[in-house]
Sequence to fold (366 residues):
Amino acid sequence: MVVLVDLDDADDDSFPSAHYDDGRPNPNVNGFSAALGCYPIVRQLARQLDLNSLHHLSRTCRQFRANLLEYRDQLVRQTLRCDADGEDDHGTAPRRAGTRMLTLTSGRVARCARDMVAECQRCAAVVCRNCIVKPPPTPTLRARHRRLCRTCTRAPIAFLTAASESPLSGTPDPPRTALLDDDAADAPRAFTAPAFERTPCICDHTVWLCQPCGQHLKNADTMYVRAWTWRTRYSHYLGGVGTGAGEGNEGVECGRGAQCLAAHFVEHQVDCNASSDPAYSASPETGERQWTGTSYYAQEVEGIGGVVKRKLKKQVRVGECVKVYDDERDKSIRWLERELSGCLRSWCSWCERVVLGDEDRAEARG
Fold:
């Protein structure tokens, strides 16, 4: 059926009215829509969103679009920006000292983008699509998995997603008894806890890493594979005489490293140049070497050719050794099959987040 309407006829009632009101209340008029109509609030919200996210918010409903359209020109200049972006809110002068306005990406120079800006999945630095590392090929995704120790595998998932400080900052370790206490696992959490948690790994779908975090990933994955090769083959080459490989501190470390829930301190020796160490000085009059620290942690050793070297001892925090299954001892190439298939919980070395296992996903669904 075709309806013909004479637009010159003002008395024609066959054309439907565009402002038809059925008397129902507008469901989009609520507290959030009222907040979008307040410029100080919507300005702070726009600073946490990039241009794409702000555009998607305006397309949620007509009420949101009407509230945001009034401040469109101001909000576009207030959206989230890359840390390398050197323009201020008006695009006329450098925003902060020491920043660069042009970024070298993939062999070319380009300005920082404004449409795709997000936090680095590893260090939380704000980077745009022109400043992130090139997405790695799909086969290399398997190399990012790290095996967790028994303590980290059996611990509640909240212990692995909670934001933790560096072990060098003096933050006390979580008590190991709490990991086995059911009351501690079922204790109610603060309502603000999800805002400070590191969500599980999503590198299978999206890899968003800044240049400093992503430039050494391949080398770290190669070294980890070599560690597994040494552990599974070392005792075999010596005829299985009990070399101690895989026992004590000689095994593969937990994927969380110093943040392991069962981490412990071991003594580690570091070679350094005695003449350049600030803790070791020479007398200006006689030229003789003088110690300024304790002799237990700093020892002078004469090497080949009479070269004097200095060894420093320090306490290093290392993770617990992981388990090797019997079927993995017979293989010479493939490891971590349980982690790669998603059967067991693992650790992502790229974004430093937990990779959920079958039990974790079942618990989240249930």
About this structure: The longest helix spans residues 217-237. The chain has a mean pLDDT of 75. Residues 264-318 form one domain. DSSP finds 14 helices and twelve strands in the chain.
